[in-house]
Specification:
Chain lengths: 282, 170
């Protein structure tokens, strides 16, 4: 013990030197680590905004295609304005005021991120609860159905894509209103691409022909009826001869999707309260 | 030593202040910078207790680090030169019989002083610049930076001597 103390005392300058030097080096390295950490923080800020930047670039590159789509939808909308109709009765404007009460309003949104090649695909849109978006709202594209909102933050919302094994949408044939349920099981099971979907539970009594147009029925929550979904490319009898399974080609090309409409049902609350009050009472 | 205490306190504050406010902003083509604050360590009396000068070096380094946001780099560079200073002084020091003197140009003579200061500055700057670069892939560019900065620091240290160190008795 005495020897140890003697050695310590003999080398006390070296020990003091080592102590101070190690302290200084530790400070310096911790400082470097801190710089690294702050660098990582700013980097994650950058990655957080990468989707947005990439999206900006993409939307610029696709302008031509997008312009065509917008022009198409504009033409479609022009076709629905009053000026496109032949006026037969002066009272029609007045009648439409009370006869037609607006039920749906549309909020445009931009697609920030989406997948189309997975079994369960989702989209991220740039509108959130601050813009009045709520869970279960329908999301439409220019020429078809996109999906339904399944999560909302204050500025963004997540959309359960039609291209998701959990999605299910009530549809009908435009020609005879025969109902079916639109599902998408992913390419794993049924060899579907992002341009195709299946209409199942179609009754055998429904006569299906290739090229038939399928539209939304309006029975699914919050989806307006009559939105074109796709056209028949193939059909076969399934489920031990109980129903038909129809393969549709979707009108909407998810691959070039960037502007979508979120549908707000003005009567949603009223409808929901009705359901709760009279249909789920037992 | 004790009667010189106020002088050293003023020297410490003045050198740190000048380093932080003036010298830290002197950059030649982003390569050469200068750290004349270590003049304080060079000026300590030759018979200063090494433990005290180690502590002073640490405090000086940490102070500069704090003001130039450098972590502990300056402290890590100052402590070693305080540790080896007695050996250098013994090697290049004067043959005069005085066992206590202040290492200045006046006491050591110009040549000996520049040699003493150059060794101290080179060691300090080597540690500082390689610590700053933190990798040896930049070995030669760091070496050139270190060398250029050492020359500049040495020039400043010599000039500061002529400006501030009064001859005794005046």
């Amino acid at each position: 013990m005495k020897n140890l103390l003697a050695i310590l005392y003999k080398n006390h300058l070296l020990l003091l030197f080592l102590f101070l030097e190690i302290t200084a080096v530790t400070f310096a390295i911790q400082h470097n680590n801190f710089q690294r950490a702050s660098f990582i923080n700013s980097a994650s800020y950058i990655t957080g905004n990468t989707y947005e930047v990439m999206n900006n670039f993409d939307s610029y590159m696709d302008l031509k295609e997008k312009n065509k789509l917008l022009a198409d939808s504009l033409a479609k909308l022009k076709g629905q304005t009053l000026s496109a109709y032949l006026k037969k009765d002066t009272s029609i404007t007045k009648v439409s005021d009370t006869l037609y009460k607006q039920r749906y309003t549309y909020i445009t949104a931009e697609v920030l991120h989406q997948t189309i090649h997975k079994v369960n695909n989702f989209l991220t849109l740039n509108k959130g609860s601050e813009d009045g978006i709520e869970v279960d709202m329908a999301v439409l594209g220019v020429n078809g159905v996109v999906g339904k909102v399944n999560g909302v933050t204050s500025n963004f919302c997540s959309v359960l894509s039609l291209l998701n094994s959990q999605s299910s949408l009530s549809c009908k044939f435009k020609k005879n209103n025969a109902l079916g349920s639109l599902v998408w099981n992913g390419k794993m099971q049924s060899g579907l691409t992002y341009r195709q979907a299946l209409l199942v539970d179609v009754p055998l009594t429904t006569k299906v022909t290739v090229g038939d147009t399928v539209v939304t029925s309006g029975f699914s929550d919050n989806f307006p009826g009559g939105i074109p979904v796709g056209k028949v490319v193939d059909f076969k009898i399934e489920d031990e001869g109980q129903s038909q399974e129809v393969r549709l080609e979707l009108f909407l090309d998810f691959n070039i999707l960037d502007h979508v409409f979120i549908v707000r049902d003005i009567f949603r609350q009223e409808k929901d309260s009705l359901h709760i009050k009279y249909q789920n009472a037992n | 030593m004790l009667e010189q205490l106020p002088r050293y306190i003023i020297a410490f504050l003045l050198l740190v202040y000048c380093q932080v406010v003036v010298f830290n902003y002197i950059h030649f083509s982003n390569v050469i910078s200068t750290y004349p604050y270590i003049l304080f360590l060079l000026l300590l009396p030759s018979n200063t207790n090494t433990a005290l000068s180690l502590a002073l070096a640490f405090v000086l380094g940490i102070t500069v680090d704090y003001f130039s946001d450098a972590g502990g780099m300056h402290a890590a560079a100052c402590v070693p030169i305080a540790y080896i200073r007695p050996f250098i002084l013994r090697t290049v020091g004067t043959e005069s019989k005085k066992d206590n003197y202040t290492p200045t140009i006046k006491d050591l003579g110009f040549n000996r002083y520049v040699m003493y200061a150059a060794i101290m500055v080179l060691i300090h700057h080597t540690i500082l610049f390689y610590f700053e670069a933190f990798e040896f892939s930049l070995f030669f560019s760091t070496f050139l930076k270190m060398l250029g900065s050492s020359v500049l620091t040495l020039i400043f240290i010599v000039l500061l001597q002529y400006i501030f160190i009064k001859e005794p008795g005046k």
